[in-house]
Amino acid sequence: MPCPSHHNVPVTPCRAHHSTLCTTPSTSPAAGGGTSSRPASLGGLVLIKNPHLDTMEEDILYHLDLGTRTHNLPAMFGDIKFVCVGGSPNRMKAFAQFMHKELGLEGSGEDLADICAGTDRYAMYRTGPVLSISHGMGIPSISIMLHELIKLLHHAKCRDVTIIRIGTSGGLGIEAGSVVITDTAVDASFQPRFEQVVLGDVVVRSTDLDRDLAEELLACSKEVPDFPTLIGHTMCTYDFYEGQGRLDGALCSFSSEKKLEYLKRAHEAGVRNIEMESTAFAAMCGLCGLKAAVVCVALLDRLEGDQIRAPREVLREYQQRPQRLIAAFIRRRLGLHPPAGPALPSSN
Ligand SMILES: O=P(O)(O)O[C@@H]1C[C@H](O)[C@@H](CO)O1
Ligand SMILES: O=c1cc[nH]c(=O)[nH]1
């Protein structure tokens, strides 16, 4: 039976939750999952899976402080080709300024304006064909931002957009400072799925990411050889503390042995890092036909501890690593040569 909201996608009850499975996770986490279940977007346009939008005279993107009546979205954003998202507003401002220099655009880039300045929910900057947006922490926060961002790209008639989350994470059996390019985002049970409660039912969506894009990013990492980069599964949790098996939260209901047993099982299932947004990001972008990637630096190895002890300066340099990799990728895609001098994002 077709799912009413996802034409042609079978509906199967989810045994665990007596719920609706809108997009069947196609493979086991170990296998990783391919891109075959993804919709082909029409001429590179963003696919909006909501028939109600067509009936609306105006669409107010409330949390972005933008709207279809108040702003000329095609003029403002129609030529955007790369969208980069990350938790922190300062990081995403620093990334936009860094990209401004990397693209060799006029001016220092220091004066880039926050397009969402009318709201303090998210921050958004653009430079050349690159849009840089913060999403806050966790699935509810990134989910709201992505609904409005994806509609923005649709209203602006953007084509062939690549979207990348550049974030931080806890590593699993990898050296602190390593950068992980996600092949499959998995949940806290190591399954490639994103569960969302819709009208009281659990809807399950696939979390496949674009395999070719991940390989292209890995190839680009050879241009930034001063840190290790690898491809692996990324586990996405609803919490930083108990949800990621930490012993140092305000609450903890398990022993250190149970914690290590869980983290080792995750590692055996192919998980190489843990963060808090990748499953929702992969599911939403995939369903809307966006080519998406997740690139996160590991701030520590969770098999060795829970607290993030590296000095602030070290952590700042770690956060710049995904930004440098993505800059190399965008330059390569645009056919630009690397800039002459050593370039680093500012310290956010
Ligand atoms: O993009 P960021 O670095 O914010 O992503 C991770 C996951 C959580 O949002 C946060 C927890 O410290 O960092
Ligand atoms: O351990 C970590 C570090 C950063 N972000 C996370 O979600 N977990």
From TrEMBL:
It catalyses: 2'-deoxyuridine + phosphate = 2-deoxy-alpha-D-ribose 1-phosphate + uracil; uridine + phosphate = alpha-D-ribose 1-phosphate + uracil. PROSITE patterns: PNP_UDP_1. Residues 81-331 form the Nucleoside phosphorylase domain. One of its GO terms (biological process) is uridine catabolic process. Pathway: Pyrimidine metabolism; UMP biosynthesis via salvage pathway; uracil from uridine (phosphorylase route): step 1/1. Homodimer. This is Uridine phosphorylase.
